[in-house]
Amino acid sequence: MEINTFLQNFADILDDTDAALIKQETVFRDLEEWDSLTALSLIAMADEEYSVKLTGDDIKSSTSLNDIFEIIKNKG
Amino acid sequence: MATFSVKDIAIKGISCCVPKDVERNIDLDILTQEEIQKFIEVTGVEERRIATKEICTSDLCCEAAEKLIKDLNWQKEEIEILVFVSQTGDYILPVSASILQDRLGLSTNCIAFDVPLGCSGYVYGLSILTSMMKTTGIKKGLLLAGDTISKIISKTDKSTLPLFGDAGSATALEFSDGAEFSFDLGSDGSGYKTIIVPDGGSRNRINNDSLQIQTIEKGIERTSCDLVLDGMDVFSFGITQGPKTVNKLIADFKIDKDQVDYFVFHQANMMMNKMIAKKLKLPAEKVPYSLKNFGNTSSATIPLTIVSELKEAILNKPSNIIMCGFGVGLSWGTMLAKDCKIESLELIEL
């Protein structure tokens, strides 16, 4: 599993966010576009792209996109 | 386990009753216009029917049942079982089913009880009714399923208010040689907190703190007597368990997917439902939605989707219909109604 592909996949679920802002260390919760509905898109993306079941706790306990990446990698 | 078939019982008719009052999501002031647009895009819910203070779930179901009994020309004394599936009954006790038995003028010999399930409740209810009718030899039975979730939702909680609507349904079941239902039912109580009303039961009796308004985050204020929905966990559960239970039914009963005319899912939210349909590779024309006009109506979503979206397509035509409900519990149920010829499908207002 590639971090750059993951970041690209994450950028794809956002509509109005500059892809340049999507980095490993990005605190996703601070993104203006992030909300509870974006979280659903993230769960959907993890399921579709990586066949991983991401839970609410996984997202709540994560800070950066790298944290999410690691969780998906470990569950995959 | 938990996959099984029940033969010789068929659905004769379904009628649904929704409150007259429409609440449009674009009129809500707890969300910004931008948030509302995004919400509608993701959930598919534009408007919902909301019961007035005087209308309970049992009232909607009662109206639906009276209409159905009349349309099918049934004699009330022939109805020997009534099951009321709801999480919003009239009282904590007694069960609403016995009140409904009396209101509908059914015989005192009628078996009547409540089943307090939600999203999976319609399928569970059908499994209970058909099984009991089969073992007892009862010829006619009524399943009343519905909810007025608006009564247990905080008006200042943007995570639940725009999603849920109210509706009641009545389904007539009758002995019919050769008919067949197949079921897959299951539950996972480890996720019981995912959708919950914390206070008011025996675990947490209503106390002085129960009605205190808590601010969970911006736009989410509620008391402990209001519905709590963990959207992320529900979503994660739905997109995993929905396809799994449908696939299990299909595999266990060797169902030819192409022979299934319609797949009617619990209307949770559009993004979740579309994802489930996509994972199952279902053609869009076989998967109806009623989310736009009614939202998520809990145990009524499946019958409401059938009467509002499929009336022309299936009325009096033998059809193979898969129905699938999943959610609060956590709990799920999927079933196939084989060669199901429904003679009455009506939607009324109260």
TrEMBL record, chain A:
Pfam families (UniProt xref): PP-binding
Classification lineage: Bacteria, Pseudomonadati, Bacteroidota, Flavobacteriia, Flavobacteriales
The organism of origin for this protein: Flavobacterium pectinovorum
The name this protein goes by in its record: Acyl carrier protein
Gene3D superfamilies: ACP-like (1.10.1200.10)
Domain Carrier: 1-76
UniProtKB/TrEMBL annotation, chain B:
Calcium keyword on record: no
InterPro entries: ACP_syn_III_C (IPR013747), ACP_syn_III_N (IPR013751), Thiolase-like (IPR016039)
One Pfam family this sequence matches: ACP_syn_III
One term of GO molecular function: 3-oxoacyl-[acyl-carrier-protein] synthase activity
Start and end residues of each Beta-ketoacyl-[acyl-carrier-protein] synthase III C-terminal domain: 254-337
Annotated GO biological process: fatty acid biosynthetic process; secondary metabolite biosynthetic process
Keywords of this entry: Acyltransferase, Transferase
Gene3D superfamilies reported in the protein's UniProt record: 3.40.47.10
Keyword Transferase in record: yes
Superkingdom of origin organism: Bacteria
Residue ranges of domain Beta-ketoacyl-[acyl-carrier-protein] synthase III N-terminal in the record: 113-189
Residue ranges that the Swiss-Prot or TrEMBL entry lists as coiled coil: none
Record PANTHER family: 3-OXOACYL-[ACYL-CARRIER-PROTEIN] SYNTHASE 3 (PTHR34069), BETA-KETOACYL-[ACYL-CARRIER-PROTEIN] SYNTHASE III (PTHR34069:SF2)
Listed name of the protein: Ketoacyl-ACP synthase III
Native source species: Flavobacterium pectinovorum
